[in-house]
Predict the 3D structure of the following.
Amino acid sequence: MRVRPRRITAGLYTFAIVWGLFILVPFAWLASLSIKSRLDAFADPPKLFFTPTFAAYGEVFGDPAFLRAIGNSLIVSTGAVALSLLIAVPAAYALRHIVGPLRHHTLLGILLIRMVPGMVYLLPYFVFYNKAHLMDTHIGLIIVHLIFNVPLIIWMLTPIWAAIPHDLSEAARIDGATPFQTLVMVDLPLMKGGILAASILAFIFSWNEFLFALILSRREVVTLPVAIVNFLAFEGTEWGKIAAASMFIVTPAIVFGFLVRRYMISGLTGGAVKG
């Protein structure tokens, strides 16, 4: 086994520490801003030591519009993930049984759909939603999120599925299991890590999505990223409320990802397997 030189190891650790600080410093600044008073928030130079206050959190969670935005984000995010799984899991299962260039070209086409900038889809959906009365509805936002969530889940699950030995499925069929029973009882339990990892990434995208939620919603289906914009008032920007609301949006994704990090790592690693 080849031993890594100490200089390379030290360099990698140094890079990891610097990169970690680069990520954590803005988050720490946002957290401190959310518990500062208005005077401390605009102090020049910035105060490192101050008396914390949670007034901004009280104002944010005392706002009925913000509470409705929390419910809207939960409905849209969970709905988008559930519907994406219903579409992507069977699609990935079908792609597993396709061999040769056809699977490669199909996956490439799916990836191209995911890579297209959201602005390209925005105008057609805006026109269609106005005519179909889907503007400012939960189902409207859920449908538009499928453009990005379904390709992501398919791309993560297809190579993982391809790595599962076909002998297991064949043994189940010899024992009398139908293709659907084989899928539910054999394949899906082996795929739970990859499915969970893909679901987390899809949920985070829907939870943080801003562009479509801003254009395709009005008053009834305002989500959390759009609700933050309401704190940019004409009289002045309420930075404390913005920071408190941003902390609420960011923290669940971080905590949720930390709790299931083992499944995310296994799912993402499995996605690197050549299909």
Q: What stands out?
A: The mean pLDDT is 82. The domain at 55-270 is CATH 1.10.3720.10 (MetI-like fold). The CA atoms of residues 104 and 266 lie 23 Å apart.
